[in-house]
Design a protein that fits this description.
Length: 283
């Protein structure tokens, strides 16, 4: 594979200015990366200043970054059955879309939501309604929304391909929508990707249920938790329950070579090494 087409990076820090995430990405050999545009554990955040947006876009150009991903706040629950929480989640999500547009970010990844006291279907319907409510704001920029596959902890939805597909079918006619597949999450949710046979079967199922055309990003993580544990516990590549072979399968698969692959592994000191390893796996 041509190296310039292999998009590999990590979730880098915006400490000291959102543009600093780009210089960190460059330091670790990344040509794509993911950020939080604001503190992910606070409801409110300042808009992106024109000066910071200009610095960010210039740094992206200067460092040859191909795709940029933002990850939405962990506080947001677009499927909440609680009115106040739902309204706050939607407001915070709208603010994130505006920040993404200001920075010309390609993809906004978000966890679908949690049912809490509602049924699974009620939760999925609420999530779909939430996403549709962003239509006018989404149209103002180029950012595409990506539903992240989850591990299925607690009452979280999005751990079955059918649940992701349910939401996509509800919103795709009005919202640019896609999927970010997390290797740790799907493994913990019950998709066995440890062998070539299992890996191929999983993506055949993804294609059959959702469609590979909707797959726009990967979170590349090993898993501390066991298969089908429904626990979200990331591990460094090759040091967890998934094992290193899966990441070889992923990197050698030509269908995915132009799709951003973002490390969220727990030891950032290993990112440079892990990125170089993934590039070598690609050939």
């Amino acid at each position: 594979m041509e190296k310039e087409k292999i998009l590999v990076g990590a979730h880098t820090s915006i400490a000291g200015g959102v543009f600093n995430a780009i210089y960190e990405a460059n330091r670790i050999g990344a040509n794509t990366f993911q950020i939080f545009t604001a503190n992910q554990r606070q409801w409110s955040a300042k808009p992106i200043s024109k000066e910071d947006a200009k610095k960010f876009k210039q740094a992206k150009f200067d460092n040859g970054i191909k795709k940029v991903v933002s990850h939405n706040s962990y506080l947001i629950n677009l499927g909440s059955p609680k009115k106040e929480s739902l309204e706050l989640s939607r407001k915070t999500f709208l603010e994130e879309i505006k920040r993404c547009h200001a920075l010309e970010i390609d993809y906004l990844v978000f966890h679908p939501g949690s049912a809490l006291t509602s049924t699974e279907e009620e939760c999925l319907d609420t999530i779909s309604e939430s996403i549709l409510s962003f239509e006018s704001e989404v149209k103002k920029g180029k950012t595409k929304l990506l539903l992240e596959t989850t591990a299925g902890q607690g009452s979280n939805v999005g751990y079955k391909f059918e649940q992701i597909d349910y939401i996509i079918k509800k919103v795709k006619h009005k919202i640019p929508i896609g999927v970010c597949l997390d290797t740790c999450h799907i493994f913990a949710a019950g998709y066995d990707i440890r062998t070539k046979k299992g890996f191929d079967k999983t993506f055949e199922e993804f294609d059959s249920v959702i469609g590979l055309k909707y797959l726009n990003a990967f979170h590349v993580n090993d898993s501390k938790a066991d298969f089908e544990s429904r626990k979200d516990r990331h591990e460094s590549l090759g040091k967890g329950k998934i094992g290193i072979d899966t990441f070889k399968f992923l990197m050698k698969d030509k269908r995915f070579q132009n799709i951003p692959k973002i490390l969220e592994t727990p030891i950032d000191a290993l990112w440079l090494e892990e990125i170089e390893m993934l590039k070598k796996f690609a050939g």
